[in-house]
Design goal:
With 94 residues, the protein is an alpha+beta fold. It is built from 3 helices and 4 strands.
Length: 94
């Protein structure tokens, strides 16, 4: 992941704020088809999978975020604060 993207997303205090931040970064590339966050509290990380409605835009999103690709989805491995909270929301899937 690009350092500026990591810094921006790592500042989120909970899953709700992280969801908004990730979706905001995706917005220029079109509607999101599928979105999933998985919080690993012990490792202080959140993995995020993103698929866009328009598959042709997927490579541009991957490049812009510096993401990895797993089964066609952009995958972000986001370090989060130790006091990061998953309480406000749970994994989201469209």
């Amino acid at each position: 992941m690009r350092p500026d993207v990591t810094e921006h997303l790592s500042a989120a205090r909970d899953l709700h704020a992280l969801t908004e931040a990730v979706l905001g970064l995706c917005e220029p590339y079109g509607p999101v088809h599928a979105f999933r966050l998985v919080h690993n509290r012990g490792a202080a990380r959140v993995v995020c999978f993103i698929e866009l409605e328009t598959p042709k835009q997927q490579p541009a999103l991957v490049r812009a975020l510096g993401a990895k690709v797993i089964n066609g989805a952009a995958c972000l491995d986001i370090p989060v604060r130790e006091d990061f909270s998953a309480a406000r929301t749970h994994a989201v899937t469209n």
